[in-house]
Amino acid sequence: MVASGLEVLCAEKLDLCRGRRVSVLCHPASVDAQLVHIVDRLAACDVRPVRLFGPEHGARGEAQDMVSVPGERDGRTGIPITSLYGGSPESLQPSQEALADSDVLLIDLQDIGSRFYTFIWTMALCMQAAARAGVAVVVLDRPNPIGGGAIEGGEVESGYESFVGLASLPVRHGLTIGEVAHLVRAGIPWGGPGFASPLDLDLTVVPMRGWHRRSSFEATGLPWIMPSPNMPTVDTAFVYPGLCLIEGTNLSEGRGTTRPFEIIGAPFLDGHRLAERLAAYRLGGAGFRSLCFRPSFHKFAGQVCGGIQVHVTDRSVFEPYRCGVAILRELRALCGENFHWRSEPYEFVSDRPAIDLLTGSDAIRTGIERGFTLDELESTWLPAQRRFAERRRPHLLY
User: Fold this and answer.
1) DSSP H/E element including 364
2) Between 172 and which of 15, 133, 152, 206 could a Cys-Cys bridge form, CB atoms 3.0 to 4.6 Å apart?
3) Longest dimension (CA), the chain
4) Cα dihedral 45, 50, 54, 58 sign
5) Are 357 and 244 in contact (CB under 8 A)?
6) Strands 80-83 and 72-73
7) Residues 327 and 263 sit within 8 Å (Cβ to Cβ)
8) In the chain, where are the structural domains located?
9) What's the whole-number mean pLDDT along residues 16-33?
10) pLDDT digit string (tens) for 75-117?
11) Which of 316, 323, 254, 322 is nearest to 287 (CA)?
């Protein structure tokens, strides 16, 4: 049984909170093994937070992707909540005024191990703001549900930074959120503006007990709580580093279905042909099944779509990012003039296509347009992937 950072804090390290004004960055998955939320767990330890901060989707997790969340008060405790996902880039970081009533900021977020997933960047921006305000940061570590071994994806090139990549991490980084915090404090010299230099920050990472880098989430004994509305299962987390790339197109990534990111498609897509063509790649650990679906909201709401479901048959060899790039390549070939790269603003950026922000450069998009093979596309990210394996080594806690 794994003890999360929250449980270790409450059992052994409450001196980090006692006698101090504590604020908490949290969401619905900030619970202990008995499903007690961090706010209630702290209250049982005579620690009442002075303020809550909510990341994308809100402190209660009710908002959909890229939906502005207002500030409010917690309905049950009356604690003020400051949203860190509003209508502008400035809303993504706490103001100095919002931190003025705090001595320490507790961060307890269940990440899913992908650069796209914005919680690590909310944490990083909070660390920057806390350093300026002289507020200590305590990160309560949690498992990386897709494992702490495998790495996939390349760098975020200069000019392609966004809230799905404020600094240069691979798409699948193989770190826990606590390890990412150490990396951010040390500085990411190959990263984006504001993250290249070390932070002068009082940072404590409360590690888990009993977690190993190759542990499956199911083996931890911890409950899976949806960290966001479209992350219902651990299976979803495993496909997300690749299938989230569909957000960068006009096809549905399965939002509005019960299996988002595992299901993709569009009214103009022949799912049977796509499944056949993907089977020819012999992508390890994955199977592809054609299907029809009708999203209840988001892209093509109420319309019948042809598509596929990605079934992960062996997590140990499945490469989600490579799989996602292969799917993009085939979608463009199959859909012809119906296929478009997303052109609408994406995560507050309007001068770069969403797919370039997701992949970290224009290399994948232009490579697909030029007819590159999957191996040729993979060669664009492999060197950076190998470099990161060495760069992350000093920051590993497990």
Assistant:
1) helix 363-369
2) 152
3) 63
4) positive
5) no
6) antiparallel
7) no
8) 5-229, 234-361
9) 97
10) 788 999 999 998 899 999 999 999 999 999 999 999 999 999 9
11) 323
Which of 337, 3, 245 has the alpha carbon at shortest distance from 141? 3
Run of H or E including 121: helix 119-133
How many other CB atoms are found less than 10 A from the CB of residue 171? 29
Backbone angles phi, psi at 305, to 5 degrees: -115, 140
To which CATH superfamily is domain 5-229 assigned?
Uncharacterised protein PF07075, DUF1343 (3.40.50.12170)
Q: Residue 15: pLDDT above 70?
A: yes
pLDDT tens-digit map of 196-227: 899 999 999 999 999 999 999 999 999 999 99
Burial class (CB in 10 A: 0-12, 13-18, 19+), 291: middle
Give me the residues paired with residue 305 across strands.
293
Residue 62 has a pLDDT of 72
Cα torsion through 7, 13, 17, 19, rounded to 10 = 140
User: Would you say residue 66 has pLDDT above 70?
Assistant: no
Write down the CATH number for the domain with range 234-361: 3.90.1150.140
Sequential DSSP letters for 159-188: T--BTTBSS---SB----HHHHHHHHHH--
For residue range 314-371, list pLDDT tens digits in order.
Answer: 999 999 999 999 999 999 999 999 999 999 999 999 999 999 999 999 999 999 999 9
**Whole-prediction pTM:** 0.96
Residue type, 313: T
* Cα→Cα distances 8→2, 4, 214, Å: 10, 6, 21
Nearest in space to 144 (alpha carbons), one of 227, 244, 61, 27 = 227
Look-up of token digits 């202990």: 32
Round to whole Å and give the CA distance between 131 and 199: 7
Q: Give the tens place of pLDDT for each residue, 158-201.
A: 999 999 999 999 999 999 999 999 999 999 876 566 788 999 99
Q: 3-class SS at 130?
A: helix
Distant-in-sequence, close-in-space partners of 192: CB < 8 Å, separation ≥ 6: 156, 158, 161, 165, 166, 167, 168
CB neighbours of residue 75 within 10 Å: 9
SS3 61: coil
